[in-house]
Design a protein that fits this description.
Blueprint: E1 5-9, E2 12-19, E3 22-26, H1 27-30, H2 40-44, H3 47-60, H4 66-75, H5 85-92, E4 97-100, E5 106-110, H6 111-121, H7 123-156, H8 159-174, H9 181-197, H10 201-207, H11 209-213, H12 224-242, H13 247-265
Antiparallel strand pairs: 1-2, 2-3, 3-5, 4-5
Helix pairs in contact: 6-7, 7-12, 8-9, 8-12, 9-13, 12-13
Length: 287
């Protein structure tokens, strides 16, 4: 279970955690919004609740104990019937609801179930918690999309400067045919890869066949800081090419630059330096 995130619904803080990469919402926190003394077990004893939980578990949990469920369901009409979350999980092997002790303790339910629980509290509350959850997911998506955009910008920012230097200074001296010029561009790209990571693109592919099958390359694995440095040495290499330095001289210069800049950026997450306008809107990286 990961560190808890908080949803805020009608001034009530509601825990949100990730369990097996799925979002679970704290029912214990949610029940605070219901007037009177109510407990999650009051909701759990309801026949409609049990039937919904059976349907959910049947869809997502192959180990759900349907025989035990039938026994529980048969008792649900009795006034004295009551079942706790721990009993429910122990008897049916349910995964949709969990009882958690410790710092982030309480009863948590998969978001599908939690939204249904919200209806038991009130239709208005249910609408608000769905809206707040969607807002949180949009914020997270914005962060990831922003990071992806920054990576694209950093990777491409100095691409033309770098390739123009190759075209203007290296290709005329190499005597390659037009059909072979790509070898020079690839060679210079590998010069940067060696300076950055100590290997060529081909070396990386041979060492990471599964990632290659997924369509990834050496630069897809780079951190934001690495991509910032890569962008810098692309520009620097274009200057060194223009100064007619040999490939060996340029590699030494670039490798030293990488080492110095890594030390400078160590411990800094550049993505955090990009300001957000408010809790749901981030500055567009393209602007």
């Amino acid at each position: 279970m990961s560190k808890s995130t908080k949803l805020v619904v009608q001034n009530i803080e509601i825990g949100l955690v990730s369990i097996n990469s799925e979002d679970y919402i704290c029912l214990t926190d949610m029940v605070k919004a219901k007037d009177g003394d109510f407990f999650v077990s009051d909701w759990l004893r309801n026949v409609n609740t049990l039937e919904y939980l059976q349907a959910w578990e049947g869809m997502y949990n192959p180990n759900f104990n349907s025989g035990e469920f039938a026994s529980i369901r048969s008792q649900s009409g009795i006034n004295s019937f009551k079942i706790s979350v721990k009993e429910w999980v122990a008897k049916t092997n349910a995964i949709g609801i969990v009882a958690k002790a410790g710092r982030y303790g309480g009863t948590y339910a998969h978001k599908d179930i939690a939204f249904t629980f919200g209806m038991w509290i009130s239709p208005v509350f249910q609408l608000y918690i769905v809206k707040e959850y969607q807002r949180l997911k949009e914020v997270e998506s914005n962060i990831y999309n922003l990071e992806w955009n920054v990576k694209r910008v950093l990777c491409k920012a100095n691409y033309k400067i770098h390739t123009d230097a190759i075209k203007n200074y290296i290709i005329p001296q190499a005597g390659y045919t037009k059909a072979k010029e790509w070898l020079l561009y690839a060679d210079e790209a590998d010069l940067l890869n060696i300076a950055m990571w100590g290997c060529t693109a081909r070396d990386w592919k041979q060492a990471n066949p599964q990632r290659v099958l997924q369509g990834e390359n050496i630069r897809d694995m780079a951190s934001i800081n690495d991509l910032a440095i890569l962008s810098n040495i692309e520009s620097l290499n274009s200057i060194l090419i223009g100064q007619r330095l040999s490939k060996a001289e340029r590699l030494r210069f670039l490798a030293n630059t990488v080492e110095q800049q890594r030390k400078s950026l160590e411990g800094i997450d550049l993505i955090k330096g990009i300001k957000k306008l408010n809790d749901s809107t981030f500055l567009n990286a393209k602007n």
